[in-house]
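User: Continuing from earlier, I have the next pair ready.

Assistant: Great, send them over.

User: Here they are, in order.

Assistant: Folding the first of the pair now:
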Amino acid sequence: MMFDTKVALIIRDDLLPWQRLNVAAFLATGIVAGAPDALGDPYLDGAGRSYGRMLGQPMLVFQADRDGLARAAQVSRERGLLTVPYVAGMFRTGNDADNRACFQAEDPDAPDWVGIGLRGAKKGVEKATKGLSLHP
C-alpha cells in the first residue's frame, strides 16, 4: 500500500538503551495524538475479542547525533511537518505538565534534542531524514 505521508522517529545516538526505547514510545504517542486519522481499526482475534488500534502506516526509526537532530528539526519546521519534541530535561520530569514546562524553557533556537517524531508529506519527511541511518 502506498501512503502520501511518512512517519519517522529520530533518536539521538548516544542515549542508553532504556532512554532510546522511552523516547521512541513517547514520540510515537505524540504522532498518533497529532494524526488520529492515521489510526487503523481495532484488532480482533479469532474469538472476536477486541484489541487496541495502531497507526495504520509504517513508522521508520532513525538515529542521529545532536547536529543531525537539529538539522532534521529545522527542516521539519521549514516544511510544516507535524513535529513531536523530546529534550534531555524531560528525563528528569515525572509528568506531562513538567515535560511541557521543560520544553518551553529550552532555547528555542538550540533545544537539547534527544528525539523528534515527524509526520507529513513523504518528500518533506524524506528531506528531514536525509543522510540519517536507520536505528539498528
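And the other member of the pair:
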Amino acid sequence: MATDDVTAEIHGWFAGRLPGEWFTGAPEIVRDREEIAVLGRLPDPPGDVPEAERSALIDGLARRFREETRERRIEIAREAEHKFRQKVSWGVVCGGRTVMFTTLSVPVMTRLRQSERRVLDTLVAAGVARSRSDALAWCVRLVGKNADTWLSDLRDALQHVDRVRSEGPDVNS
C-alpha cells in the first residue's frame, strides 16, 4: 500500500473513532516512520484575557483535556497501535500553542565531521544544551522553525514522487 493510502486510512480511522465533542474540528494527524501524532484543536481563550492569565488558561485547558480524556485516549491509541503498527502520541492546539502529552523520543545515529561536532560542543559549553544529543535536537528544531516553508515544499514534492511511483509499472514482473 502506498504511503498516501496508509496516511488516508489513518486519517479516516481517527475521524471515525474520535469522539466528536473532543475538538473544534478534525484533528491534525502527523505521521512518520515510528509515530502517529494526533493534534486536536481546543476552543481558544477569549481575546480580552491578559497575556499572563492567557498562558495559564491555555495550560489549564490542555491539562483538563488531558486528564478528562486519558482513559479513552489510551484505549484508542492501543487500537490504533495494533492496527497500524505505530505508536500514537497526543497533543492539543489552543490559543496558537501546541501542547504535546506524549511523544516518542527516538534515537538517531549520525556521523558528524569535526567542524559539526564543534558546533554541538559550543552549544553544550554555552549551556544552551546539556549534551551533544540535546544540542543536535536543538539544531533540528531551529532549522524546522526557520525553514518551515522550504520543508513543507519538500514534503509536498516527496508525496508527489510517492504518487508517481505507485502509479508506475510493476517492477516485479
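Worth noting for the second one:
The longest helix spans residues 51-84. The chain has five helices and four strands.
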